[in-house]
C-alpha cells in the first residue's frame, strides 16, 4: 500500500450566512475557508487537490455578470495568500507540481489553476462539458467562471472517468463505488460524490502515518453535518446542483463515517480543518 504525505493550505475564504449551508442555521455571517491540498507522491512528486482563490478570481469577476459571484459570496484573499505564493514559501515552485486534481470547476476551487501552467490536470469530463454548454450568465449562476481555465486546458486535461477502475477500494466504500485509480498504482482514488455540482469528485488515499483520508470537497461543507446529518437548505443545493443527489451522497458519507470512524473525511470549507 502506497502512503502519502499531505497537508492543507487555506487559500482565502468567503463570507456567507450559516443558514446557507445548514438548514435552520443562523443568519450570522460565517467564514468559510477555501482549502487546497498538497500531496506528495513517491514517483510523481507534488500533486494538488484544488487551488482555492487567487488574483485571477478577482480579475475574472471584475465585470458583470461574473461580478455577481463575488457579490453573493464575498471572498477575501490576503496579499501573498494565493496557493502559489504559499507553496513558494515552502520551497515548492509552480513547475514542481506534477498534477492538479480538480474536485469540480467552481471558481473557489480552480481560482489558482492558471498559476501552474506546466501541470497536468485531472477533471471530470462531465463537469467540463457542462461548463462548455453554458454562456457567461448561465455559468456564473452555477458558480462557474470561464476565464479561470487556461486556454490550453483541453491539451493538458486527463478525464477522471477514463482512469482505470480502482481494484483495491475498501469494502466500506461499496455505496460510493466505483473509484478511479488516477495513477494506476492504487495511491490516489477519485470517488464520485454527486449532487453539489456536475462532475463533483472526492479523493481517497492513505497518509504517511497510515491514516485513511477522504477529501470530500463540497459534498459536505462542515464536518458537523457528517455527525448530525443536517443538510443545507434545498434552495441552495438545487441552485448549485441536484438536491436529491446531494442528500443521497450526504447520507452515504454519514453512513461511511459511522461504519469507519478511523477514516478522516475533510470538507474543503470546514473551519475544523484549517491548517
Task: Walk me through the structure.
- This protein is α/β, with parallel strands linked by helices and 275 residues long.
- The chain contains 10 helices and 12 strands.
- It has helices spanning 55-60, 67-72, 83-89, 107-110, 125-132, 136-140, 153-156, 223-228, 234-240, 243-259, and strands at residues 5-17, 29-41, 45-49, 75-76, 97-101, 120-123, 157-159, 179-181, 189-192, 201-206, 212-217, 264-267.
- It has a 7-stranded mixed beta sheet with strand order 4-1-2-3-5-6-7. The protein has a 5-stranded mixed beta sheet with strand order 8-9-10-11-12, with no helix packed on it.
- A hairpin with an 8-residue loop joins β9 and β10 (201-206).
- The chain starts with a strand and ends in an 8-residue tail after the last strand.
- The relative contact order is 0.17.
Large-scale geometry: globular
Look up the CATH topology. Answer: Metallo-beta-lactamase, Chain A
The main sheet comes to: 7 strands, mixed
Mean pLDDT: 96
Count helical runs: 10
Beta-strand proportion:
15-25%
Please identify the top-level CATH class: Alpha Beta
Classify the helix fraction into a percent range: 25-40%
Class derived from helix and strand content: alpha/beta
Number of domains: 1
Gyration radius (Cα, Å) is 17 Å
The CATH superfamily bears the name Ribonuclease Z/Hydroxyacylglutathione hydrolase-like
- In whole angstroms, the N-to-C terminal distance is 26 Å
The number of E-state strands comes to 12
**H/E element string?**
EEEHHEHEHEHHHEEEEEHHHE
The CATH architecture comes to: 4-Layer Sandwich
Protein name: MBL fold metallo-hydrolase
Cofactor: Zn(2+)
Pfam families: Lactamase_B
Family: Belongs to the metallo-beta-lactamase superfamily.
Amino acid at each position: 500500500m502506497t502512503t502519502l504525505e499531505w497537508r492543507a493550505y487555506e487559500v482565502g475564504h468567503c463570507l456567507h450566512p450559516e443558514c446557507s449551508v445548514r438548514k435552520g442555521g443562523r443568519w450570522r455571517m460565517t467564514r468559510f475557508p477555501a482549502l487546497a491540498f498538497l500531496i506528495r507522491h513517491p514517483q510523481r512528486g507534488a500533486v494538488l487537490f484544488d487551488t482555492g482563490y487567487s488574483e485571477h478570481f478577482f480579475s475574472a469577476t471584475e465585470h458583470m455578470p461574473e461580478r455577481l459571484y463575488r457579490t453573493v459570496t464575498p471572498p477575501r484573499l490576503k496579499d501573498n495568500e494565493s496557493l502559489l505564493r504559499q507553496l513558494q514559501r515552502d520551497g515548492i515552485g509552480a513547475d514542481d507540481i506534477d498534477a492538479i486534481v480538480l474536485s469540480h470547476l467552481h471558481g473557489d476551487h480552480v481560482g489558482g489553476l492558471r498559476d501552474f501552467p506546466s501541470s497536468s490536470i485531472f477533471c471530470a469530463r462531465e463537469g467540463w462539458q457542462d461548463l462548455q454548454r453554458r454562456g457567461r450568465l448561465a455559468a456564473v449562476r452555477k458558480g462557474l467562471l470561464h476565464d479561470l481555465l487556461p486556454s490550453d486546458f483541453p491539451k493538458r486535461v486527463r478525464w477522471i472517468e477514463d482512469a482505470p477502475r480502482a481494484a483495491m477500494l475498501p469494502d466500506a466504500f461499496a455505496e460510493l463505488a466505483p473509484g478511479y485509480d488516477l495513477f494506476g498504482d492504487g495511491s490516489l482514488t477519485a470517488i464520485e460524490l454527486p449532487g453539489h455540482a456536475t462532475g463533483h469528485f472526492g479523493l481517497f488515499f492513505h497518509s504517511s502515518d497510515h491514516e485513511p483520508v477522504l477529501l470530500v470537497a463540497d459534498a459536505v461543507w462542515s464536518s458537523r453535518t457528517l455527525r448530525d446529518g443536517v443538510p443545507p437548505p434545498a434552495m441552495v443545493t438545487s441552485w448549485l446542483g441536484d438536491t436529491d443527489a446531494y442528500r443521497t451522497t450526504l447520507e452515504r458519507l454519514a453512513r461511511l463515517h459511522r461504519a469507519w470512524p478511523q477514516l478522516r473525511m475533510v470538507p474543503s470549507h470546514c473551519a475544523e480543518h484549517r491548517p
